[in-house]
Every structure is written in structure tokens, then in C-alpha cells.
Amino acid sequence: xxxxxxxxxxxxxxxxxxxxxxxxxxxxxxxxxxxxxxxxxxxxxxxxxxxxxxxxxxxxxxxxxxxxxxxxxxxxxxxxxxxxxxxxxxxxxxxxxxxxxxxxxxxxxxxxxxxxxxxxxxxxxxxxxxxxxxxxxxxxxxxxxxxxxxxxxxxxxxxxxxxxxxxxxxxxxxxxxxxxxxxxxxxxxxxxxxxxxxxxxxxxxxxxxxxxxxxxxxxxxxxxxxxxxxxxxxxxxxxxxxxxxxxxxxxxxxxxxxxxxxxxxxxxxxxxxxxxxxxxxx
Length: 282
What we know:
The chain is of the alpha/beta class. The chain has helices spanning 10-21, 35-43, 53-58, 69-82, 96-102, 148-160, 170-199, 211-216, 224-233, 235-258, 261-271, 274-281; strands at 2-6, 27-31, 49-50, 62-65, 87-90, 111-116, 137-141, 164-168. The chain contains twelve helices and eight strands. The radius of gyration is 21 Å and the shape is globular.
């Protein structure tokens, strides 16, 4: 397969590394609005060559669009206008908005809406790594709107990444993503801002920071150019989850005010059940 990689960053770059290593991709053509990204990807041999969008699409078998979701919404109709036999897929973290922009397009069947459920807090091709996706799941949304040929090709691509499939509607994806991903990022951003505000008064606070703090605020290092468009596109679902999160924090605050440590203990025991759920996933 010849792959056109539109957006040569962490996710797209990590996919390219493993697709080349597995033999699935014989050639990867990179397209990016930032020349420095292409230069880094070429030096690291993440891509075989750099090109413009139209040339890359015309020479490819599969087009992977790995850009922030606001850019994705703008580019997808344009890319679908260019395709003939080519299969197009994305890696976006919000799906209903993407589905709306391609709905009714004459080449909609060439497109597979997908989301590999893996990543790190870093951005850019310099952070692309092998086996980022190994053992994780990917979501295919609204599969009945894609052709059998397109589905089979994208499924084969993710098999080469050693990922397992999940199938759901765009609407269901966005609800679930808000709970398992989007709220985690908002919480991490908020905690980082809270501690940074306190640090102005207590300059030694970070000297006490341990692994627990680092793991909790790890996601606060994520790129705002990626995450603000996700929050915008999945705004309603994120608001619902955020309201529930705020209610839980308010309950914990009430326990402290009332010195109700028995209720605190009971809620923490309930929270511990997350270990069982995550163990089942493994």
C-alpha cells in the first residue's frame, strides 16, 4: 500500500513507523502545513517523501488524515473531491461534526471514520514512537456508510498495528470519548492551573511533587491546538460530563466541611472499583 499521511505528527507519524515496519506500507507520502514537521519526518525516515496534498492523494491507495479536528473538518470534503479508488480515513477524537461535513458527499463510501484509542501528551513527529498502538482498540463509526472495500482496507491497516476493532455510531463515540478521554484532559488542565496559581505564593511546592502529581497533570502538557477544537466539536457531551465531575467534587468538599469522613471513605471504596474494570480491559 502507498499511504498519503496528511498531518505528520505524533499519531500519524507513529502509525507510519509501524505500517512501514510491518510491511503494510511500501511508501508513505507526507503532507503537512509545517515544513519543519516534514523535514523531521524525512530525517527520521517516518515518511519516504514530502509532497503537496493533491499529488499525495493521487499517488496513494489509502489517505490517513491526522490533523486537529478543525482542520480535518475543512480538509475532508476537499480530499473526497480528489479521490477515485483511494480510501480515506481519519484519526479524529470527535466524530459527529466530522460525519456532518461528509454526509451526502458522492464519495462518502470511500471514507472510514476511525479513532485509534492511543496517544501521549506530546505533539509533533519528533515524538512519534513505534508500537504506540500495540494492543489498544480503534473505533470505527457509522460503518454502514462506508463501502466493504474501504472497511476491509482500514481494518487490515489496523490489524498491522495490532489493534482490535470497536464499532459504534458517531453519537455514541462522542459520548464515550467525553467520559474516557476529554474530561481527563480538562481535569488535568484545571489541576495544573490550580497548582500554578498556588505556586506564586509557595515557591517550593514543586519540590514536593512526586509521581502521583506528575501522572495526574501529565495530560496538561497536551497541545491546545489539538484539544480546544475537540472541546468545541464535542461541547455538549463534555459539558454533561463536566457537570457530573463538578457535582462529585462539590460532594467531596461537603464531606470535608461537615467532617463526614465515613462518607468520604465509602466513596473512595466505590472509586477503587475502577481497578476491577481496568483489569478486565487487559
